[in-house]
Amino acid sequence: METKAISKKSIAATSAKKALPVFNESCIFDGYEPEQVMNETKKLRELITKRGTLEILIPLCCTTDPVRYIKFRKSMKGFSSKTLAARLKQLDKNGILERRAYNEIPPRVEYRLTRKGQELVDSVIGLLQWMRKWSRFD
């Protein structure tokens, strides 16, 4: 046990001495504490990293037309109806999607991005472009 405590102390001392390099002097987070930024991004990380979220958002960014629930079901192989419904409900609750249900038989439910959702998707597309630029797929 004593060995573990010593090694943790030495690691902490070594880490405290090293500063992260600054790559861009015009950082928009200048003056923020890293812990504060991480806390502020927690909701975003929880939202976009849940299984199925990106698979829902990407098809919606490629059209201005609403997308029906059944189209999501057909395109999202390997996702249960329960997972899809939960993700759609969460995105609607967070103001990312607008849900419109029609009083028809058979039932028809359509989804479209809100302005907030479109801004999120634009950011995701930016991340995808970054990934394509910097990732190597061998």
Write the layout of secondary structure elements.
Layout: H1 2-17, H2 34-40, H3 42-48, H4 53-61, E1 67-68, H5 69-75, H6 81-93, E2 97-102, E3 108-113, H7 115-134
Antiparallel strand pairs: 1-3, 2-3
Describe this structure in words.
- A three-stranded antiparallel sheet has the order 1-3-2.
- The chain has 138 residues and is mainly alpha-helical.
- The chain contains seven helices and three strands.
- The protein is globular and about 55 Å long.
- It has a domain at 49-138: Winged helix-like DNA-binding domain superfamily/Winged helix DNA-binding domain (Arc Repressor Mutant, subunit A, Orthogonal Bundle).
Unreliable segments of 5+ consecutive residues: 1-17
Task: Kindly provide the name of the CATH class of the domain at 49-138.
Answer: Mainly Alpha
- Estimate the mean pLDDT confidence: 78
Order of strands across the biggest sheet? 1-3-2
Write a concise synopsis of the structure shown:
The chain is mostly helical.
Please give a handful of descriptors for the protein shown.
7 helices; 138 residues; mainly alpha; disordered N terminus; Arc Repressor Mutant, subunit A
